[in-house]
Amino acid sequence: MWTPSARAARAGRAIARAAHGVHWYVTALMGDNAYATYVAHQRRHHPHAPVPTVREFWRARMDEQDRNPGARCC
Known about the structure:
Layout: H1 4-30, H2 34-45, H3 54-67
């Protein structure tokens, strides 16, 4: 049988896990981790290629979206 403190600890872990999942989803949806994902890919697959700065990455990404809007909302 679960004690009240064990039940509370289990509920706290479940809430923290859910909050982490929501945070991951929102940041992935908004593109907040796009640069980190890009850098990890570049270092893994193209280790000798220069990695652009954050500013250069976002400028190139926005320019590409302007050239090819696709199905974005705005």
